[in-house]
TrEMBL record:
<dbReference type="InterPro" id="IPR013763">
    <property type="entry name" value="Cyclin-like_dom"/>
</dbReference>
<dbReference type="GO" id="GO:0006357">
    <property type="term" value="P:regulation of transcription by RNA polymerase II"/>
</dbReference>
<dbReference type="GO" id="GO:0016538">
    <property type="term" value="F:cyclin-dependent protein serine/threonine kinase regulator activity"/>
</dbReference>
<feature type="region of interest" description="Disordered">
    <location>
        <begin position="319"/>
        <end position="367"/>
    </location>
</feature>
<dbReference type="InterPro" id="IPR043198">
    <property type="entry name" value="Cyclin/Ssn8"/>
</dbReference>
<dbReference type="Pfam" id="PF16899">
    <property type="entry name" value="Cyclin_C_2"/>
</dbReference>
<comment type="similarity">
    <text>Belongs to the cyclin family. Cyclin C subfamily.</text>
</comment>
<dbReference type="InterPro" id="IPR036915">
    <property type="entry name" value="Cyclin-like_sf"/>
</dbReference>
<protein>
    <submittedName>
        <fullName>Related to cyclin CCL1</fullName>
    </submittedName>
</protein>
<feature type="domain" description="Cyclin-like">
    <location>
        <begin position="64"/>
        <end position="146"/>
    </location>
</feature>
<keyword id="KW-0195">Cyclin</keyword>
<dbReference type="InterPro" id="IPR031658">
    <property type="entry name" value="Cyclin_C_2"/>
</dbReference>
<feature type="region of interest" description="Disordered">
    <location>
        <begin position="234"/>
        <end position="254"/>
    </location>
</feature>
Amino acid sequence: MATEDERYKQSSQFRLWSFSPANLQELRHKTNALAKQLILPRLNPVPEFLTSEEETRLVKFFTVELIRAAQFCELPTEIRSTAAIFLRRFYVTNSVMTYPPTELLKTSLFFGCKAEGFYIRLARLAEKFPNTTSDQILAGEYLLCQGIRFAFDVRHPFRPLEGAILELRKRCPDEETRINNAHARAREILKFSALVTDVYFHYTPSQIMMASLLMVDAGLVDILLSDKPAKNGAENDAKNGAGNGAGHGDDQSNGAYAKARERIMTTLESCRAMLEDEPPERMSEYWGTPEIVKSMKPLRKKLQKCRDPDRADLVELQRARREQANTKPTLQKPTSHDLALGKVDHTRSKRQKTAGAADDVFGPSLG
């Protein structure tokens, strides 16, 4: 039976959306450079473009706005978390200068509901936002799916947290209040800090969960990591009279455990440091203050001047693409006169028919 780690490594989250910090930074720089290259010929005069760091800051700002919008719409925690990760994934390989984040934010919320199986009427969601129509929300849906590489499965750390809390309650029945307080605080961290930082790109859900507990109560993490490997081999040796080898095996086991624990704690500490950059209090004490809104205005004005004019209106972009698809030239059918005179290339006609069948949604004929 596959272990939890093996199952996670088969997920799209690990295969497509896990990066080292250096790789993620490089990818964002490439996205920024490519966007500048594509937008430059379309703007006159040439404006000052956003840097990669400024784009990252804007994405964080709009992620906070998405969380705030999800709370206003009274969407469950799983929905807002999935929507936030969709938005952050999209802007790893797409620039905020190319596609408007104010529109993709709403699309991410609606598609997050779909991905998590949570039904909400599109018109009802559109009513929650001023000057927003259903068409505006739907216009960016396929773009979003492409941007996240059709990876709709998002593994969150909430379920691992519940499992850890159950284990702690079993091991420490007299510490109910302490565990409950840690549980509540860790959930707050996971509902905000984990979503506005890059931890989902660098760590597994279980590592993120343990790092959040480490922020709250390091002693509880020690309890969860206190299990040592079984010593069945040493016990059997002792029963069989091979006491001399038992001590050596026990030392090896303890050494391996110590190394593994050190490696785990190093990972958890680095994840913890990233989470501590955005504690839950910053939702209201920093991102919700008039000062930060005012400080973001220059960046948003800069974005308005350097965004792609051909992709600023997603509804119009979708309409233009549909018209382009509908106006593709169609092959004229041969007339009976052409058939009689042998003016039809049967080989080419058959090849085109076969190619068309291969492109059919249901595949070519079985005959």
